[in-house]
Amino acid sequence: MPTTIDSYLIAPKYYDAAYAAMDLADAPFYVDLAKESGGPVLEIGCGTGRVLLPTAREGVEIHGVDNSAPMLATLKENLAREDAAVRNRVTLHAGDMREFRLNRKFPLVTIPFRPMQHMFTVADQVSALKSAAAHVAAGGILAFDVFYPKVDVSQVRIGEERLEVEWSPASHPEAVIRRYVRTESVDKIAQNYGVTFIFRTYRNGQRTSEETDALKMSYYTYPHLRALFLLAGLETLAEYSSFAKTPLDNTAEEMIFVLRPTRS
Question: How far is CA 128 from CA 99, 124, 215, in A?
Fold first, then answer.
């Protein structure tokens, strides 16, 4: 399999600003885990560095793996703007999360912000978890998150555009960029859905540009995940419904797991 693919062709240039505007809570959770581990950390699906770079800024050595060439290119641009001390703590790898091997182990392996939802078959899901587990050092842990499925909502809204977030770029504060999402399809049997992200730029109230990026994501039920853990040789240490470490229950919008390889 190729080590990089041209997924996320358009989204990377909007990615950091869009999610900064959403004020996500996941990065502090993973940074705290990294600091507790003492490093080095392996982050699978590192993207543009939204979690990786804050980790490195906290003095923790971190390795990042991703298979999206555009995402890695954006991360390298972001990394170039960091201090030398931060840059020296970061090592990047192009690789497929189902099969890469770095021939070293880490006290903490993370898969933050849902890369597991780009795995569409049970075989791929198990392979990805096994690849992650293969890099966990003795006494170390694996942490990752997926969203709690809202299949009823996505099916009702097929074909409907929804505004998710808007922001003004620092380089052009007079402009407004709005990200819309449109669900294109839902496959209840395969447990995945396809969406289109729409990025529209406005100046003086007039739309000046529009770009789109397609994305497919799988979704998981809790029993499905527990079965995957058994198949991948993992056992659960903790499970949460939020990055504030609230218990996993029927109010959950996230499913967050801390695991370790099963003891022999």
Answer: 7, 6, 19
Q: Coil, strand, or helix at residue 191?
A: coil
Contact between residue 32 and residue 9 where contact means Cβ atoms under 8 Å apart: no
CATH topology of domain 12-148+220-261: Rossmann fold (3.40.50)
Q: What is the CA radius of gyration of the chain?
A: 18
Give pLDDT tens digits for 120-140: 999 999 999 999 999 999 999
> What ranges do the domains of the chain cover?
12-148+220-261, 151-218
44 φ/ψ angles, rounded to the nearest 5 degrees: -95, 130
Percent of the chain with pLDDT over 70: 95
Nearest to 221 by CA among 158, 146, 152: 146
Count of C-beta atoms within a 10 Å radius of residue 244:
9
* pLDDT tens sequence across 217-251: 999 999 999 999 999 999 999 999 999 999 999 99
Q: How many CB atoms lie within 10 A of CB 32?
A: 14
Residue 257 CB neighbour total at 10 angstroms: 22
Strands 206-218 and 234-240: what pairing? unpaired
- CB atoms inside a 10 Å sphere around CB 158: 14
Cα(236)–Cα(141) distance, rounded to whole angstroms?
10
Structural contact between residues 33 and 143, judged by C-beta atoms closer than 8 angstroms: yes
User: What pTM value is reported for the model?
Assistant: 0.94
Distance, in Å, from the CA atom of 99 to the CA atom of 41, rounded to the nearest integer, reads 18
